[in-house]
From TrEMBL:
GO terms for cellular component: membrane. This is Sulfate permease. It is a multi-pass membrane protein. It is found in: Membrane. It comes from hydrothermal vent metagenome.
Amino acid sequence: MNLKNIKNAVVGRFVPFLTWLPELKDKNILRADIIAGITVAMVLIPQSMAYANLANLPPEYGLFAAFLPPMIAALFGSSRQLATGPVAVVSLMTALAIAPLTNDPVEFVTYAILLAFMVGVVQVTLGMLRLGVLVNFLSHPVVLGFTNAAAIIIATSQLGKLFGVSVEKDPHEMHFTGVWNTIVAAVQYIHWPTFFMAVLAFAIMIFTKRKNKRLPYVLLAVVITTLLSLVTGFHSERKINVTQLNDEVMRTHIANYFSNKEKVNHIDQQIKINSTEIKKLTSATLSSTAGQQKNRKTLRNLKNKHDDWQIDREKLVKINSALLNNQIKHIKFGEIDSKSKTKETASFAEDSDSLRSSFSSHGWKISGIYLNDKGKKELLLVAGGSVVGEIKAGLPSFALPQFNLGIMGTLFTMAIMISLIGFMEAISIAKAMASRTRQRLDPNQELVGQGIANISGSMFSSYPVSGSFSRSAVNIDSGAITGFSSVVTTIVVTITLLFLTPLLYHLPTATLAAVIMIAVFGLVNVSSIKHAWLANRNDGIVAVTTFALTLIYAPHLEKGIVIGVSLSLILFLLRTMTPRVVFLSRNIDGELREAKAFDLDICDNIAVLRFEGSLYFANTTYMEDMVQKAIANSPDLKYFIIDGVSINSMDATGEELLRELSRRLNGIGITLIFARFKKPILEMLENTHFISVHGRELFFRKIDLALAYAWEKLGDKHEDSCPLGNKHFKLKQEMENAKPTQESKADSNAG
């Protein structure tokens, strides 16, 4: 390798952006990238907030994920047009990974950032070790089934925001239990203005997309619904003290809620102390034999207490969940009675204000319930629909993720899943675009680029990101030529974070739900599952099974993937355990064909077997059985030819089988002949001395040479009558030609 090639390899590996950076001297390329980058940003900004919503994160964290990762992925990846950032499937998997760990919003954000770092480390490690091929274990049918199921799960998760209802979800319940509860709540408590906003957003996006795909249809929906929300007073909110409620029943419910919450906090403290004691006692028991019996008894008592506290905690959480969802949050209020003549914003702390509850479909409703800084119980009341609210202006500050080994251990499996799913999504898009632009794509370099984007993003408050189907399509359709378009996208997001976030306050969350649903509708592709079924029944089974189990096990999406991958591997092994094994004979066209399929005569003295697959430990028994069966059915068999043209590889067990067949067949007077074996296999057989032991004269490059050898040994002009011989085939051809055709029969009948 010369110096120039070494330089190109180093640049492509560590600083791939240097390959396209000089192209920006061309003003046409620069202009095209700037236009494409701005266009993608118009889609990315609203989508990022929507996907943050899907990930159960505040909307600004979607913007943080759209800030640095698009540029970093473009600089260090190998695809020029891949648009990286928040995506639907990865956002959902992020939410599902963290939901069992905490309900605290601050901890949720902390763990999401940590997860991004872990995903990045996994991706960079795999890329540097050139292990991008691991994504091949996610076969096409598995991806099809998972993607279709994930799209349905994502869409149904937005129903609450679509109808303007809120249902508290138990992290341990199945996804569709929560969906059913949402639908039941929507029937009773649907907020029509919210539903109208969602329908309007859908209409704008669908109509605009059909009219002109180049128009920023997502941005148009966001702008129009935000302006409408501002002008119509779509959303209002205020805080009140619980003592301002006139309804004694409501006060009792709220008092019970806080009482239960205090009990849960107390139990959590006890569990924490108890866990520390268990760890200490376990360590002491293992390190010392003295007093082990006493320690074990104490340890058992502590564990029993731990289990009892967990049961009590779960009961209290369920009671509070029922109180909040079935009693407190669904109560709506009429007008606020105020004796104070001050402005409404000043009346929050006025004890004279009071609220009367009613079950009217209008008025105020309780959005949140908490203790304020002074320890007083407060309610957050909202009227109208839900909006994004205040987004802090400014760029995210640099900070390392908060490393917690316990949490990292819990998240590790999902980090691997997200790494592979995210990369699979990114590389499939990148490959499609590379075929259009005829650019060279390095999957391992793309894996490194995605990993660095996630690692660097986690240091600026980003959650996991990946390549986006929709935004990459917008990028290439807008004329992007180099990765600089993603740099422009980052610049536009930076300007938005610095100056434009106040404009997003009145953006309805129903619009974000509509944005998510429009994005995932494109992921639903039932026809592809049907096509997989028609192409190969096993692939169809894998796709349908993955689809069904992902839906059934939701929100535990990893189970659907693991079972799908396992099933595809099992079916693959079963398929390779019983490969096609066919016996050949001479067809009317002079070629050797499958005797059974073409209804051909077979020779009593010579058998020609073609094994279609790699010969390895899992299928040697099957091969042996097929040979034994052929011998049993042909008592006059003298020569057995194995056609190795379809055997691509062979392991030690396969070589041992050939050795055993040679010995066994030789013992019963049958000569084993090998034809058309490939060079690597012949080299292996040479290295193991099988060729020299068996007889070099019994290996042939062509089947006809092997047949000629057998005919010569059989003598008595055996070739003339053998169904495998050319002379026999010519005789059959003459007989076939002598048969009257249908037309000649018709002519003779007419005559």
